[in-house]
Amino acid sequence: MSIKSSFRPVWLLVVVIILLLVVLGVYLLSVDTAPSTDDAVISADSTLVAPRISGTVQDVLVQDNQQVKAGQLLAKIDDRDYLNAVQTASAAVETAQAQMQSLVAQVAKQQPTIEQARAVVAADAAGLVYARQSAERYKRLAVDGSTSLDQRDDSDANYRQKLAAQQSDMAAVRAAEKQLDVLKAEQAQSKAAIDSATTALQQAKLNLSYTDIKAPIDGIVGVRSLRVGAYVSAGTRVLALVPVEKAYVLANYLETQLAHVQPNQSVTIKVDALPDVTFKGKVDSIAPATGVTFSPITPDNATGNYTKVTQRLAVKILLDAGQKDLSRLRVGMSVVPTIMTQ
């Protein structure tokens, strides 16, 4: 009897341990500690290259799928029309500058002209004083017969002539001063013409520089439509540059798989095209909304019949740098990422 009682606590302990193991197993099976999905692809921030001017393609310097560096010349547009535009704009600038120089010289010349006209008015004033005094003297003399009426009239006429001459010369001073104002206004207009011509010249030079189509980023050439002799229009895509070395993974996880997903968690990535390679990465971010949220026609769940559908959210995964097979990846490849949430 004592032997049976001694074994009873042991069996109870075994039963408790088994129950704990069962509970732990159920918990581990119910919690997805490594969510995975096959709805994922390699992506990259590709750049579409388009000419900023229209023209005929003179030379194409890259081939399909070629690696290029930022600033590298991709193609050249016939620049003869744009060279002529630069020369025309340059001539317009020179003409405007010559006009300004002529106006500067006229302004410099006009100031002495004004001074000369003012000097004439001053001389007129002195002569007018003498003529007035002489006319008044002959007028007094004529009263008592000391001089003839002809001399009186001549003296008076001379005075009036001097007065008219002074008024004419004063008008000439005012006209010369107004002419100076006109020349200064023409100078301002000429300066504006120089600024306009200079701006046109700068734009013409810019347009000439745009005849060289250069790579904006490092990447691989794709969808190239450039051909020698073809006419291209401004803003029309002629090729794309794909920065494969900066590729990342976009994985569309079910919303129910994201309960424990956080940024910077480690990720293992299998690529369908490279079954012998496993890549490493880290979770970068989770999309702010499901894909259907941004669709042109969103579903309306306010109807009478409703079927719940588990939505998917895009998770951006960055690939760890320095992995030797990264150069083998291509945008659009199907992958299977697995996030290590524990």
From TrEMBL:
Domain Multidrug resistance protein MdtA-like barrel-sandwich hybrid residues, every copy = 49-238
Q: Which InterPro entries match?
A: Beta-barrel_RND_2 (IPR058792), MdtA-like_BSH (IPR058625), MFP (IPR050739)
Which residue windows are transmembrane per the record? none
Gene Ontology process terms (BP): transmembrane transport
- Occurrences of domain CusB-like beta-barrel (ranges): 250-289
SUPFAM superfamilies to which the protein is assigned, alphabetical: HlyD-like secretion proteins
- What Pfam family is a match, any one? Beta-barrel_RND_2
Q: Where is the signal peptide?
A: none
Q: Which family does it belong to?
A: Belongs to the membrane fusion protein (MFP) (TC 8.A.1) family.
| Designated name of the protein | Efflux transporter periplasmic adaptor subunit
Organism, per UniProt? Rouxiella silvae
